[in-house]
Amino acid sequence: MTSESVAETIINTADRLYYERGITAVGMAELRDAAGVSLRRLYSEFPAKDAIVRAVLEKRHRQWSDGVEARMAEVGGSRERLLAVYDYLADWFCEDSFRGCGFINAFGELGGEDAEVRRIVREHKESFQRRLAEIVDDLGAPTLLAAQLALLAEGAQTTAAIAGSGEAAGQARAAAEVLIDHALSAA
Amino acid sequence: MTSESVAETIINTADRLYYERGITAVGMAELRDAAGVSLRRLYSEFPAKDAIVRAVLEKRHRQWSDGVEARMAEVGGSRERLLAVYDYLADWFCEDSFRGCGFINAFGELGGEDAEVRRIVREHKESFQRRLAEIVDDLGAPTLLAAQLALLAEGAQTTAAIAGSGEAAGQARAAAEVLIDHALSAA
DNA sequence: CAGCAGCGAGAACGATCGTTCTCGCATCTG
DNA sequence: CAGATGCGAGAACGATCGTTCTCGCTGCTG
Question: How far, in Å, CA of B66 to CA of B62, rounded?
């Protein structure tokens, strides 16, 4: 396999810097230094900073989807697959670099000005909700449950980031169990 | 009663602009124009932009606390007081100007760089959780429930902002009912 | 070897940032 | 009336932003 392309290096470096410190706080000069490329090369790979931001968000979307999907594939049964989401969150929250959901952060920072960022963030969250809805449907539970499980996951991400502790994942998981079992017993 | 002071005008204007468009996106010149004061006056009331940001967050914290508290006072019983939080959210989400939780947005935008913002945001969220914990305690339910109800509220705020719809409030309320009743039946 | 295309280093550009300074007018004090 | 004070308007400052341009080296092709 070939080593990563220049564009990938740029995206990975930008992702790390933007996530750590915020998008507007990281200038193109800093990105150039950290990625070890020339400014000329930066602008030959991407037309502008906006394009890098979009590429970073799209890469992050694939990573999240793949990560959640892999975690869900490890267990059997729809109920366990739903709960696997919170186990995935628990691992993520433990990472030193964890600083909340990159999409929520980008939305808070740029969502007021940049309609394209709004669109990407919204699509990311909708796709997660759709995936949950599929599994909830397999369970035979109402779609409302999928939305509620998503609320728990979103709340856990922001709470873990702000509180600086990962305990929200376990709390969300326990709440999810109650909601799932209640939905099943009502069906 | 006297009309609002210059400092209050500045804070209220800054709050609106920062919330609508993001903090870094709003410069001091724009704030001066919108508040109708001179730049000189801006810097005589506040030593720097950071101080305005902090003042805005602190005002927002009082507004949130007072608003939730007033809403909870309208109903009787601990269970209804807890659920009143989500009714408060539902009203808020319907406002045209709603763009998510200002603290979460500020955290996403500045939390990576500004430790003071981190502290204020964390304190705000902790104070909300403490208030929930008091009422949960009155109910005789375990403290875990308070954390879970907070997760639902946080998740509803970000989801409503990103999706651009207020339905998350009702979904969170329904989930809260299930969690509360489950906690009570187990006690 | 001559000529050319590609690219890195970094200067340069115009815009805008937060912040400070200058100037001139208005209002008060004696 | 003379002088001082306070403040608004806005120019000025240095820094930094995103972006483009220049220059000079490197390695290819004929």
Answer: 6
